[in-house]
Amino acid sequence: MATEVLMPALSPTMTEGKIARWLKSEGEKVRAGDVLAEIETDKATMEVEAVDEGVLARIVIAEGTDHVAVNTPIAVIAANGEDPVPAPGPNGREPAAAAAAPQARAPQPSAAPTPPAAAHAAPAAEPEYTGATRTITVREALRDAIAEEMRRDETVFLLGEEVGEYQGAYKVSQGLLEEFGARRVIDTPITEQGFAGLGVGAGFAGLRPIVEFMTFNFAMQAIDQIVNSASKTRYMSGGQMGCPIVFRGPNGIAARVAAQHSQCYASWYAHCPGLKVVAPYTGADHKGLLKSAIRDPNPVVFLEHELVYGESFAVPDDPDFVVPIGKARIARPGTQVTVTAFSRMVKLALQAAEELEKAGISAEIIDLRSLRPFDIETVIASVKKTNRIVAVEEGWPFAGIGAEIAAMVMEQCFDWLDAPLKRVAGKDVPLPYAANLEHLAVPQVEDIVAAAREVAYR
Amino acid sequence: MLPPARPIGELWRCDRDLIKSRLQTRRFATILPARFLAVVSGEHPEGIEMAAAHKAQSAAKPGGVAELDASPPELLGFFRDMLLIRRFEERAGQMYGMGLIGGFCHLYIGQEAVVVGMQAALKEGDTIITSYRDHGHMLACGMDPKGVMAELTGRRTGYSHGKGGSMHMFSREKNFFGGHGIVGAQVPIGTGLGFAHRYRDNGLISVTYLGDGAINQGQVYESFNMAALWKLPVVYVIENNRYGMGTSIDRASARTDLFHRGMAHGIPGEQVDGMNVLAVHEAGLAAAEHARSGQGPLILEMMTYRYRGHSMSDPAKYRTRDEVDRMRTEHDPIDHARRLLSEGGTGEASLKAIDAEVRARVAEAAQFAQDSPEPDPAELWTDVLVDA
């Protein structure tokens, strides 16, 4: 059977091109894979290969012809032993524009379907814990979470700079090397992109790596592996391959370490589908959320805070205690203004609430805990009660978490608002070193108090 | 005083003998001084000029490269697998031209011997990872051409349900870990697969493919360092097809021999004629054995060539037609295998039958890929996260 060779497209946008030259002549035998012709556009050149064996029966479009429409028949190949097909016209050529075959594309759906309800619903809050607690620091709570999960699951291991012999740059991994050995508590070279990617590969293979970044500032070296490799592979593989990995370490400001070591990455990672992002404040939440993160089959970015590591809380002692990812917590109930915060800013918000109470304003403090998935239901329920909201974060305001909350509140409960949402955020500058400037750049309790009074018109 | 420079093919033959003897004593040299000196001295008359490939064509002759068995029983299977990739890719190119395949589409035509020879050197359970020129790897792994082609056309029956495309396909079943679109990013991940084998002490290895373009990415050296430091069972296969997109290797790399790029980390390397499937297979067996035996990673630099552009839209101005034609006519890996088979007594009828069988499989895959429905719109929202 004779087959037509069609003018190919070099790109999805190409509509026509030029037959630069024929490399086979009429009557010549061709084998599959032989180059028949070379075609050109203003940008690119491509070879047309024979797909079947046979004889080049006819060249329909002559060498040098320009403006040949995509999908126009340019040649005919006859199977071996078959009579060459006679030429249709007097000159053996068809007009170039005549035969642009319709593209084999299905019509595009006019609108994307809405996401399934499950994608929105926040999990139920953890049941109230009534068991034994111990008062320990956040750093110890994190250590306990890692140790408990490593005892529970042999595939869990800790990887990062100075996590082993040094006992952790911030002493989070104290004692782990002694208990679990160098096979599972692994000191890496200073090579963030490399060990983050190595962790991703180990995750693909079914292990559960905890990748510690000494601080999230250094994770910028590895952000391609976190976003492109860890977060997207489940989707790109049609669900076949996932990455149960935790990327954790201190995020946000420290004290007087200047711009390159002081930055909040919450909104960076929260932007990305395929990641979960948590930023707890209390000791119980650090422990319970880290345990959930380690057990989670998805990649989780776990944002800690250097200035919170040393704070002490009553922390559940039970190894089965976990906190679900995706659920906010009412840190302090109130009635007149909602204040959202996460990580260290929860502490400042709680202090601000004390101040506001003295001024006769009842503030409800929401500790967001999870930034993706985001528990908007809890925020909306609060706003419907208080009709006012202040969103606090340590990071920059532009395209920040506060900006996202403002958008969601507008979309979902605009009519309940008695005042525009007010953001309290870090100043829109790289963090300065000088003590006075640093103080000015970072949100303070008085900033939160002032914002709450502003939205309360008091 | 430096020794006189010799063509790569000859040097390579020397190395092979050395590696064979080293294998017997289970110890690789990190590098061969003579070759290394020849490289650093710049006295490399043929440079990356495919001298190895020239030599490879004489493999069947007495005294030829590596004295390989000219027509071992597995050669017929290699021929079939290479032909399948070739015909599949040609069809993919054609379907791209018809608008059935969109986006980026990087064809593997010319490089078939590399994946086919390597795959035959592996054990069940060994893991494979590569970058975006990945169709050949998937077919070599035994993934179904129908599922691969249907992914290229973006249909629900594709390996990724139409959500990955040409550059992003995976198969848990075949231990193929992608399919990665960021140049070099698969190298730490492949190193992590090796880490997982080591962690589990399961006797398996990771084969991590990268191109001559990726070799200049920093994360490759981060990976080499960790793999050597922790003696991870990884074989890094550099597919040196001489061009990173449109930039030839000598315009991108200060030194154009790539097998020694692990030298600073003590990783042994070997240059292999990547247009000769038997040479690849033998090098693969030795490398796999090395990695599997706990001696750490190893680098194989496969000297190969892609006949087609970097992707479908390629200006083809960065190399001469003569160069491409020369490679195609003088060094084609499939022609080479066909010739060895003929000389070894395989009849024309058997070769034709394989040809017909392969063509039918590809035609079936192409039809399947066109007939399959597009993904259900609800698929848009699936596989982002899984329930905890």
Written overview of the protein:
Chain A has 458 residues and is of the alpha/beta class. Chain A has twelve helices and 22 strands. Chain A has a seven-stranded mixed beta sheet with strand order 11-10-12-13-15-14-20, with helices on both faces. In chain A, helix 7 links the parallel strand 14 and strand 15. Chain B is an alpha/beta fold. Chain B has a single domain, classed as Thiamin diphosphate (ThDP)-binding fold, Pyr/PP domains (Rossmann fold). Chain B has 14 helices and eight strands. In chain B, helix 4 runs parallel beside helix 14 and helix 8 packs parallel to helix 9. Chain B is globular, with a radius of gyration of 20 Å. The N terminus of chain B is likely disordered. The chains are: A alpha/beta (458), B alpha/beta (388). Chains A and B meet through strand 5, helix 3, helix 4 and helix 5 of A and helix 4, strand 2, helix 8, helix 9 and helix 14 of B.
Would you spell out the secondary-structure blueprint of this structure?
The complex is a heterodimer of chains A (458) and B (388).
Chain A: E1 3-6, E2 16-22, E3 29-30, E4 35-40, E5 45-49, E6 54-59, E7 68-69, E8 73-78, E9 133-137, H1 138-152, E10 156-160, H2 176-180, E11 185-187, H3 192-204, E12 208-212, H4 223-231, H5 233-236, E13 246-250, H6 266-270, E14 276-278, H7 283-295, E15 300-304, E16 312-316, E17 329-332, E18 337-341, H8 345-358, E19 363-367, E20 370-372, H9 376-386, E21 389-392, H10 401-413, E22 422-424, H11 435-441, H12 445-456
Parallel strand pairs in A: 10-11, 10-12, 12-13, 13-15, 14-15, 18-19, 18-21, 21-22
Antiparallel strand pairs in A: 1-8, 2-4, 2-7, 3-6, 4-5, 6-8, 9-16, 14-20, 17-19
Chain B: H1 8-24, H2 33-40, H3 51-56, H4 75-97, H5 112-119, E1 127-130, H6 135-140, H7 145-152, E2 176-179, H8 186-200, E3 206-211, H9 218-229, E4 234-240, E5 243-244, E6 247-248, H10 249-252, E7 269-273, H11 277-292, E8 298-303, H12 321-330, H13 333-343, H14 348-371
Parallel strand pairs in B: 1-2, 1-3, 3-4, 4-8, 7-8
Antiparallel strand pairs in B: 5-6
Helix pairs in contact in B: 1-11, 4-5, 4-13, 4-14, 5-11, 7-14, 8-9
